[in-house]
């Protein structure tokens, strides 16, 4: 009976206090209010899938924390939610994007693309009049433009609704009052807005198009860029909503909305209406492009090889140096041991990006400390650290060694202190040398506890964007003929970054996401098989 009561207390959390219950209800109320606000926004934007998901999550959270019992779930729920939000969702979303053409030329929906094309497809009517305008409000609250033609001294007026407020010449019969220069000052039924009112409504006024005739597309319209001067414009294209065809007025050429490529495209010669397109699903085309496009496939094998060498070299060099220092400074007989250990940890304490920039300055070919001081004996034959492939790769590994060895020093020191002294003392009594003690006793025991950390370090360095980007930017760039620049020190993640945010050919988030998925699968596979191999170390121990 006593055991049963203990289990009940363990899994139920005991009897809650009144204060704790009220605090729980208060916190859940704030959370629910926030979720309710988010749901209103999502429903307003017609994001029903996300709205349903958030609603279900909110109900589950309330059920977990309001019910009696389920203590483990109460502790696990926040971590699981953060895992879903920052890890699982990112992976799933990247996977989804990899099957689309999402990029700088395809970053919106069809409707947004259509609006952008129509906004850009505006040109002034050749030889048409330009006006000085005043903005008025009618009795019904609608905005109208009162335009004064400086050349003819005539006054025109019209609103957005052509049927109700058509564009026409205003005469004295409509109550027009002008000054000595012919500028309109008053019109019956119209309230002229002052400059402050116009400035307050400037963002709205500059979006207004006043039709010159019943058909806005063919008759043209009046538009203003500053709310004080206006001109007659027309669209370069006419759009048929039923057939989704855009007709160019200059040559009557037709462009059909092609959902396979996300562009308005002419079926005869393949001409694209504009560089602006919309996001569509393209299936496996991004993955096919990775292995089928010669300009990507060519440098890709070299990048993958260098990425593996960089990650492996970084882990091996930092581990060897960190382990060596940990072994040397694990002797309690050394005076000032804590001071030495603190000094070795200093590179780990400084922000990595600052250290990378300091090293970048020291490795400068002409004025750097390393060439001018440490390697001054080389004279004019200075090492071009950032201009030559071999030197640049050596520089990256050197800097990464400086940034990474303190971490290895810390974990190796901790693991060494966990090894029982009885083992090493017994080995010494049996006549084992210091090297044999390290090789046959300490190193196998160290690898049991450090193997997972070494695997994690390999995965980190495989995607060590900062070390490459901050130091060399991926350079030196030896071949400038490719669409996407490829540098000698580029690893996969920096190459993907250049694809995603390229300034020369435009960003291609879909292709970059496909690369990211492949990197995720590659790292996941390496980690999985590496962790399986670590079981063999445990059996040896």
Counting helices, strands and paired strands, the structural category is alpha+beta
Average pLDDT figure: 88
The geometry reads as elongated
Give the number of domains.
3
CATH overall fold name of the largest domain: MetI-like fold
Please provide the count of β strands: 17
Q: From the coordinates shown, what is the CATH architecture of the largest domain? A: Orthogonal Bundle
Provide the low-confidence segments as ranges. Answer: none
| CATH class group of the largest domain | Mainly Alpha
End-to-end gap: 42 Å
Radius of gyration: 35 Å
Largest sheet: 9 strands, antiparallel
Helix content: 40-55%
* Count of alpha and pi helical runs: 19
CATH superfamily of the largest domain: MetI-like
Question: Roughly what fraction of the amino acids lie in strands?
Answer: 5-15%
Structure characterization notes:
By secondary structure, this protein is of the alpha+beta class. It folds into three domains: 17-66; 122-235, no CATH class; 291-540, MetI-like fold (Orthogonal Bundle), CATH 1.10.3720.10. It is 55% helix and 13% strand. It has 19 helices and 17 strands. It has helices spanning 2-12, 18-44, 48-66, 71-97, 110-120, 195-200, 202-205, 216-219, 285-292, 294-328, 337-349, 352-362, 369-374, 389-417, 421-429, 434-462, 465-471, 492-500, 509-540; strands spanning 122-124, 130-138, 143-149, 155-159, 168-169, 177-178, 184-186, 190-192, 210-211, 221-224, 229-235, 237-240, 245-248, 253-258, 263-265, 477-479, 486-487. The strands form four sheets. Strands 1, 2, 3, 4, 5, 8, 9, 10 and 11 form a nine-stranded antiparallel sheet that branches. Strands 12-13-14-15 form a four-stranded antiparallel sheet, with no helix packed on it. α10 (294-328) packs antiparallel against α16 (434-462) and α18 packs antiparallel against α19 (509-540). The protein is elongated. The mean pLDDT is 88.
């Amino acid at each position: 009976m006593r055991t049963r009561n203990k289990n009940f207390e363990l899994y139920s959390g005991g009897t809650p206090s009144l204060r704790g219950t009220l605090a729980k209800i208060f916190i859940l109320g704030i959370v629910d209010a926030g979720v309710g606000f988010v749901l209103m926004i999502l429903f307003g934007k017609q994001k029903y899938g996300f709205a349903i998901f958030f609603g279900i999550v909110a109900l589950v959270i309330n059920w977990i924390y309001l019910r009696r019992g389920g203590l483990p779930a109460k502790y696990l729920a926040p971590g699981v939610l953060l895992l879903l939000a920052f890890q699982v969702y990112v992976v799933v979303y990247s996977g989804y994007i990899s099957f689309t053409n999402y990029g700088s030329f395809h970053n919106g929906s069809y409707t947004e693309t259509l609006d952008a094309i129509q906004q850009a497809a505006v040109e002034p009517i050749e030889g048409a009049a330009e006006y000085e305008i005043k903005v008025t409000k009618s009795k019904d609250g609608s905005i109208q433009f009162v335009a004064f033609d400086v050349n003819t001294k005539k006054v025109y007026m019209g609103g957005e609704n052509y049927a109700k407020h058509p564009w026409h010449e205003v005469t004295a019969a409509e109550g027009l009052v002008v000054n000595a220069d012919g500028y309109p000052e008053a019109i019956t039924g119209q309230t002229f807005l002052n400059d402050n009112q116009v400035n307050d409504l400037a963002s709205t006024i500059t979006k207004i198009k006043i039709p010159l005739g019943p058909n806005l597309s063919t008759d043209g319209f009046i538009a203003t860029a500053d709310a004080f001067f206006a001109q007659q414009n027309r669209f370069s294209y006419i759009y048929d909503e039923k057939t989704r065809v855009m007709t160019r007025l200059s040559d009557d050429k037709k462009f059909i909305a092609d959902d396979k490529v996300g562009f308005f495209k002419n079926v005869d010669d393949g001409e694209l209406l504009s560089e602006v397109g919309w996001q569509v699903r393209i299936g496996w085309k991004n993955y096919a492009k990775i292995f089928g496009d010669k300009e990507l496939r060519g440098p890709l094998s070299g990048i993958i090889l260098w990425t593996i060498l960089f990650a492996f070299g970084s882990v091996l060099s930092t581990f060897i140096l960190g382990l060596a220092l940990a072994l040397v400074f694990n002797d309690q007989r050394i005076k000032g041991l804590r001071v030495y250990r603190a000094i070795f940890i200093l590179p780990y304490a400084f922000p990595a990006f600052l250290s990378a920039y300091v090293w970048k300055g020291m490795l400068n070919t002409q004025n750097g400390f390393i060439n001018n001081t440490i390697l001054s004996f080389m004279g004019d034959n200075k090492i071009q650290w950032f201009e030559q492939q071999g030197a640049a790769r050596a520089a990256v590994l050197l800097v990464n060694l400086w940034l990474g060895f303190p971490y290895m020093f810390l974990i190796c020191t901790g693991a060494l202190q966990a090894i029982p002294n009885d083992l090493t003392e017994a080995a010494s009594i049996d006549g084992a040398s210091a090297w044999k003690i390290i090789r046959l006793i300490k190193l196998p025991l160290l690898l049991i506890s450090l193997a997972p950390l070494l695997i994690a370090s390999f995965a980190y360095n495989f995607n060590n964007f900062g070390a490459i980007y901050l130091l060399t930017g991926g350079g030196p760039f030896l071949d400038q003929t490719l669409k996407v620049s490829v540098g000698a020190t580029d690893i996969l993640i920096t190459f993907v970054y250049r694809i995603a945010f390229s300034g020369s050919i435009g960003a291609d988030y879909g292709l970059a996401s496909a690369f990211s998925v492949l990197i995720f699968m590659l790292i996941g596979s390496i980690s999985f098989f590496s962790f399986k191999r670590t079981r063999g170390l445990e059996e040896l121990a």
